[in-house]
Amino acid sequence: MPKLKPFVKGFFTNIFCLILIGVILWVHFLILHSEDLTDVDFGDIRDAPPKDILFRANEVINSGRSFQCSEAALNQYLGVLIKGSENKLIDNLLSFDKVAIRLRDGEFDLILIRRFNDKPLTFSARFRVVSGEKGIEISVKSGRFGRLHVPGGFVSLLYPGILNIVEILEQEKEMLTRPISVTIRKDWLTLTQRKR
After folding, report:
1. For 142-153, how does the pLDDT look when each residue is reduced to its tens digit (9 = 90+)?
2. Which residue of 14, 94, 152, 155 could cross-link 143, Cys pair, CB 3.0 to 4.6 Å?
3. Distinct helix (H) and strand (E) counts, the chain
4. Coil, helix or strand for 96?
5. What is the rounded average pLDDT of the residues 59-70?
6. pTM for the complete prediction?
7. Beta bridge partner(s), residue 4
8. pLDDT at 3 over 70
9. How far is CA 9 from CA 6, 14, 156, 160, in A?
10. Which pLDDT belongs to residue 50?
11. How far apart are CA 76 and CA 169, in angstroms?
12. Domain limits of the chain?
């Protein structure tokens, strides 16, 4: 096998390093630009937030009817319920803005929105929801760091933030342990008493 001249080796090494630096810069560019949130219905903040969603859901489901909740009402409810703050070490750089839900057919996105120099910085996880005989199964499908799409395994970097949200939503989590089925359609969540 012929040996490459030092000039050729150096040339290919430099090209490889430039490509690697370009990829790293591109990934950072995608992460620092938030994902498109124009399709998320945050609801009108001026409206009185629906604080009684949990009470109404329990009442409707106990009466045997289906409970439906819009994406806007759900995001207003989360906006009132979840107030966050950042670690004191990064508090001067990042500030917590809000948590939002994007409802799709059979799936939902949990979006954490932070502010970095007054620009939105988003991290999201897409979950698949399946209602079966054994209950409700929720699995991670994929995620996003800004505009960078990542496989479900990378979403584990968001687990501490997601677990903190789950702790706040303790009463809502209890409702999902009841024998109900969950149906998610674009912009709508439906909870129904499961047939026994």
Report:
1. 888 889 888 877
2. 155
3. 5, 8
4. strand
5. 83
6. 0.78
7. none
8. no
9. 5, 9, 39, 45
10. 60
11. 14
12. 33-193
Pairing of strands 148-151, 180-185: unpaired
Radius of gyration of the chain, Cα coordinates, nearest whole angstrom = 22
Instruction: Note the pLDDT tens digit of each residue in 109-136.
Output: 988 888 887 888 888 888 888 877 777 7
Cα–Cα distance, 56 to 15 (Å, whole number): 62
Helix residue ranges, H only, the chain: 6-32, 53-62, 71-81, 159-168, 170-176
Tell me the CA distances in angstroms from 25 to 17, 32, 130, 147, one per residue in order. 12, 11, 38, 14
Token pair in block for residue 14: 């430099």
Average pLDDT, the chain: 79
- Which tokens in the block code for residue 163? 């677990």
Interior CA angle at 75 toward 71 and 102, to 5°? 50
User: Which residues contact residue 60 at a Cβ distance below 8 angstroms, ignoring those fewer than 6 apart?
Assistant: 66, 67
End-to-end distance of the chain based on CA atoms, in angstroms?
Answer: 73
